[in-house]
Amino acid sequence: MKKVVILGAGLVGRTIAIELSKDYQITAVDTNPVRLKELKDRKIKTLKTDLSSDSGIKKVISNYDLVICALPGFMGFKALKSIIKAGKNVVDISFFSEDPFLLDELAMKKDVTAIVDCGVAPGLANVILGYHNQKMKISNYKCLVGGLPYKREWPFEYKAFFSPIDVIAEYTRPARLVVDGKIIEKEALSDPEIIHFDEVGELETFNTDGLRSLLKTMKIPNMIEKTMRYPGHIELMKIFREVGLFNEKEIEVNGKKIKPVDLTAKLLFPFWSPGKGEKDFTVLDILIDGYQNGKKLSHHYFVFDEYDPKEDNSSMARTTGFTCCAAARYLLDHNYDRIGICPPEFLGEDENCFNYIISYLKDKDIRIDKT
Fold it and tell me: How confident is the chain (371 residues) per 10-residue block, as mean pLDDT?
């Protein structure tokens, strides 16, 4: 039986561990004993250790066939580098700000396949775009994505079903778009639109930096990715940002230096933490326009998922985790042999891999409609 080690046992890491334990020998690693206990109760091997050092990661992953990195974004790039240096294949879902292609040469040298950004968007959306980019000349790509609780509670009407510090990054990191073939930057939270979905009502969209690897790998003249929240959330987050609550630069308070963003994350965590059995949903709406065989063609994908009460599994954990699991399984069992940094659009270019991932998600009752 092949052995897989999962770094990080948060909401998504937990989901990945449980799903892959059906067919592989799993070890889940985290510093939080409460997270590990639940997995241990499910007969999954666990290890409590610090993953902040290169030597610590190297020691942990030495005897495994595959590593899955499900750490918070601020740890992601450094951890990925350590994994590649150790010569281990990896599927990564951490949303780090650094360019993963900085590690491409190292991955090539170490003969490592490093699948990065393998969640929903980036992730599943990239897989879909990569597939169609092989078959048509695309002129326009627009991706809308959001994960939200059904219950709208004051003051935020939001819950973070992944790392809260990574959510804050979406509100501060400049959004890169492609307009008429040129990469432009816009402020995060900019260009709001109200979109209606029959399943959940009205949501507001805003620019976020979700294109990431697509800026390098795709030669498409117009590309945009936007995040969705309940109406009113943009204005509230703009206020937080404007007064400096998301700043990384240390300030002095009563003789002690602190980063405002660290304090903010600490204060927001109780409000943003999902409650036990909290019902949520994920919406992914993708439009791809272009030409195929000289004819104008549009592909519209609508992906929708909800909380799973049987497994007490959030929709965001399902859609992110199962996409990661599908890629991991394909890498382990279907001889995917592309070496180097592999963003999900590279997976989509392989038609067998594309069909495998879509079928896998549908088998998990994730709704994927295509018109």
Answer: 94 95 96 92 92 88 95 92 96 92 97 96 97 97 96 91 79 95 96 96 96 96 97 95 94 92 90 89 98 94 96 93 98 92 97 97 98 95
* CB 201, CB 157: distance < 8 Å: no
Any idea what DSSP says for residue 103? Answer: G
Provide the phi-psi class of 294: left if phi over 0, else alpha when psi is between -120 and 50, else beta. left
Contact 301, 127 (CB under 8 A): no
**φ and ψ of 99, to 5 deg:** -80, 115
* Domains of the chain listed by start with CATH number: 3-121+315-370 (3.40.50.720), 124-306 (3.30.360.10)
Q: How many residues does the chain have?
A: 371
Three-state secondary-structure class, residue 269 = helix
pTM for this prediction: 0.94
Around Cβ 313, how many Cβ atoms within 10 Å? 20
